[in-house]
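Collaborator request, handled under Task 6.
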Amino acid sequence: MFLILLLGNCQGQDKENAKIKITEKETSSYQINGIENGFNNFNVKYYFDIENKIPYKIYYLKNYGQYTIYYIPKVNVKKYYQNFEKETGIKPQYDELNSSYFYSISQQQKINTILKEKIKKPTDFTSFGKFIAKKYLTVENGSDYIINFPYTFNLYTNKDNLWKLKKTIQVKNYDEDVKYSNINYLTNEVTNQKDDVQNNNWNGKYYFELYNGDHKKNSFDINIKDLNNISLDYISDGNASEQYKNLTGKLINSNKIEIVFNPKYENMGVIYIENKNGDFFISGKVIYFINLSSDTFPIEKK
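C-alpha cells returned to the collaborator:
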C-alpha cells in the first residue's frame, strides 16, 4: 500500500484514493550535516493549514526525504491564527470534487509573504518537525512522490534551530497514517501531554442526549480508549448517526479536553469534556444550539 503525494494548490485528503495534496515540492540536492539540519532549509515557502489553523512548511529533499515543520501558535498569538481569514482578508476557495478548501497560487504567495514576517519571532510558537526518510518514498514522473506502507517517521523537537529526535513511529496502513498525522496527536507527543492524559484518566465511555424544541434527538456517544484513540457517534436533530474514528483529544488543562470531530463544521464540529470534581460536563457551540438554553450540560461517564 502507498500514499501518493501530488503537487497542486489545495489541501485535502481522499480516503478512497489515499491521496494527499501538497502545494509544492523542493528537490534541492545540497548536502546537509546530519538529518536534523535538513529542517533548517530557510528557502522554502510557508503555508497555512486551513483545518488546524496553524502555519507550516513541507518540502522534499531528494537525497534525504520529506520534511515538515509545524508552528503551533502560543496563547499570545493564537487568536490571530484562529481568525486568519478575517485578519488577512484571504478567503480559501472550495473544491467541490474533493469537498475541501484550498488557496490559489496568488493567495498562497500572499500567505507566504505574511507568514515569513510573522514567524520571525520563534518565541510565539512551539515548533516541531516530522521527517520521513528517502527509502520510504518513490518519486514518479518528477511531479509526485509516493509514501509506501509500512513506513516510519521521526518526530523532532526544536530549540534555537537545534533539532532533537523525540520519537520514532511506525505507520502500517492508511488508518494509522490518519491517526499519526493528526496535529493534536503530534503536539501531545512532543509536549509530553500523554503523561498528563494518563494521570487524569480520561479513558472511558461517555453518553449525552438532549432533545431540541421540535423533540428531535441530539446525542453524543463517545468512546475514549486514550486521547489518541477516540471514536464518536453523533446524532443531530434526529438524523442518521454520524460515526467518527481515530479522533484525537487535546488537553486544554488538567481537567478539560477538546475533541474536534468534524473540522468542516468549524466551531459546530468541536466539543469539550470537563471533569469537575468527578462529575463530567460536555460543552461547545453545537451543544448550545440544540435548544438555545446553555452550552454546558452533564455527560454520563459509564
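The cover message to the collaborator said: "Residues 6-30, 194-200 have pLDDT under 50 and may be disordered. The longest helix spans residues 105-118. Please let us know whether this matches your experimental observations."
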